């Protein structure tokens, strides 16, 4: 059996823009993608803390060190500049794989500069 578990998260980032005319997705500073281990075009779930919206799209890299977090296409209607977001990816693992696994969490400041990368350790020890 496989379990779907948090793979990576960019926590409390600030939405820097919205572009309704773009084809779709969410643009994310390449440095943040790299630190979180999120691949270009990987599916992400986005949670908007300001309005409660939750949606799924895919990540595209924005220029490194730009601080850009921008909603594109239809998703641009789900947030406004300044909203705080959580961006997450998930992976499917066997219970055996989870024994040596820990999700990666990137903590950012209000300008989307990475402050810290955390790992949730002992994922299974507290639940099984």
Kindly describe this structure.
By secondary structure, the chain is mostly beta strands. It is 9% helix and 48% strand. The chain contains 2 helices and 9 strands. The protein has helices at 30-36, 95-98, and strands at residues 2-14, 17-19, 25-29, 43-48, 54-62, 69-72, 84-94, 104-108, 114-119. A 9-stranded mixed beta sheet has the order 2-6-3-5-4-7-1-8-9. β4 (43-48) and β5 (54-62) form a beta hairpin. The chain is globular, with a radius of gyration of 15 Å. The model is unreliable at 122-128 (pLDDT under 50).
Through-space gap between termini: 15 Å
Name the assembly state.
single chain
Outline the biggest β-sheet: 9 strands, mixed
> What is the approximate shape?
globular
Low-pLDDT sequence parts: 122-128
Number of strands: 9
Task: Please compute the radius of gyration using only Cα atoms.
Answer: 15 Å
Q: Percentage of helical residues? A: under 10%
* Helix-and-strand structural type: mainly beta
Subcellular location: Cytoplasm
InterPro entries: Asp_de-COase-like_dom_sf (IPR009010), Asp_decarbox (IPR003190)
Catalytic activity: L-aspartate + H(+) = beta-alanine + CO2
GO molecular function: aspartate 1-decarboxylase activity
């Amino acid at each position: 059996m496989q379990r779907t578990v948090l793979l990576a998260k960019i926590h409390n980032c600030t939405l820097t823009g919205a572009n309704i005319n773009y084809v779709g997705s969410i643009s994310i500073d390449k440095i943040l993608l790299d630190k979180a281990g999120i691949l270009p075009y990987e599916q992400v779930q986005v949670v908007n803390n300001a309005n409660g919206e939750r949606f799924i799209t895919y990540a595209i890299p924005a220029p490194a060190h730009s601080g850009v977090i921008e909603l594109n296409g239809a998703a641009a209607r789900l947030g406004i500049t300044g909203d705080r977001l959580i961006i997450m990816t998930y992976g499917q693992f066997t219970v055996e794989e989870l024994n040596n696994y820990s999700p990666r969490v990137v903590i950012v400041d209000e300008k989307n500069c990475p402050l810290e990368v955390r790992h949730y350790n002992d994922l299974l020890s507290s639940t099984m």
